[in-house]
Amino acid sequence: MKGYEVTDRGKIIIITLIIAIIVIPAAVIISRISNSPRPPDDNGHQIAQQSPDNTAPVVTESPPPVEPDDPPEAGNGEQGSFDPPVEPPDDPDDPDDPDDQDDSGQQTEPEPPEIGPVGINLYAGTMEFMFAPELQDALDDDTFEMLGEFITSPRNTRNSKILVEIPFLPAEETTTITSVITDAFSQYGISRRDLSFETYHSDSIGDSFGIMLLFIEPSSQK
Q1: Considering its fold, how many domains does the chain have in total?
Q2: CA dist 3 to 6, 8, 10, 12, Å?
Q3: Looking at residue 142, what is its pLDDT?
């Protein structure tokens, strides 16, 4: 059998092939590893990656860590339930109560009761005025002055009497109205025996009530 002798040139070719077989695959693997993205670290810091052309590092922004939502406060011993706050009841005497304020936020005062003259008809011999028995212990000046005009009516004859119609009220308030009207007429020289009081049922809501005065003849007295 004829033997072969490897020349120096053959040795070089063989060594070159061996190096190519080992180095080229290793270079490919290293290149793929260096170009793959790196995961963010545990603190969410930015991680620099080498750009494919190896000219400058590429900085990627890792998302911030997600904080877990705070669990709802427990109430009544149950997880996730809570008791709504309980507001105190309105104080009717509280000056800051919104129910006592107008649209502009200004504090509103309660409407005063209506008192004073309503009207007079001398020819018919009638007069009407408003009176608040809980707030008055005498006629107001305007009503007292009109009372003096009322007795000048032509219906005020020698035989006439004055009928006073007052609302049906508790005894204390009725006594107040009777006393005030009797005292006012006495200042014009008209005695209690010339007055006749009758009550009527009133639908008025409030502190003041209408009082009607009219001259009557004894024969027509109710």
Answers
A1: 1
A2: 10, 16, 15, 20
A3: 96
Could you give the CA distance from residue 75 to residue 163 in angstroms, rounded to a whole number? 72
Q: How far apart, in whole angstroms, are the C-alpha atoms of residue 219 and residue 222?
A: 9
Q: Cα dist. 183→9, 87, 217 in Å? A: 153, 53, 22
Range of the structural domain that residue 205 is part of? 116-220
DSSP-derived secondary structure for 76-132: TTBTT--PPPPPPPPPTT-TT-GGGB-TTSPBPPPPPPP-EEEEEETTTTEEEEEE-
Query: What's the pLDDT score for residue 3?
Result: 47
Q: Is residue 110 domain-resident?
A: no
32 assigned to some structural domain: no
- 2: in domain: no
pTM: 0.50
Average pLDDT along the chain, 222 residues, taken 10 residues at a time: 61 80 77 66 51 50 58 52 60 57 63 88 95 91 96 93 93 92 95 93 79 85 46
pLDDT attached to residue 222: 47
- Looking up residue 124, the CATH number of its domain turns out to be 3.30.1330.60
